Prior knowledge:
Elements: H1 3-12, E1 16-19, E2 24-33, E3 40-47, H2 52-55, E4 59-60, E5 63-67, E6 71-74, E7 78-80
Parallel strand pairs: 1-7
Antiparallel strand pairs: 1-2, 2-3, 3-5, 4-5, 6-7
Amino acid sequence: xxxxxxxxxxxxxxxxxxxxxxxxxxxxxxxxxxxxxxxxxxxxxxxxxxxxxxxxxxxxxxxxxxxxxxxxxxxxxxxxxxxxxxx
Length: 87
């Protein structure tokens, strides 16, 4: 994995993920890249057990899959656009 990808992974790792409507979905556990292009495709989160929305989203094992296209803002927290989430 190139250095830039590691830098992105370090910056995102462990950040809280909330929706644009204020629901806390969980914390980033991992990220998935498209190997051929290096494009960030998904973030994988440890779900907040109290989040009703997180319970209904696509999963990979115990982690919830959030498409990168749903990311709205990245700062102290990661904000995702609820309307862009796949269920």
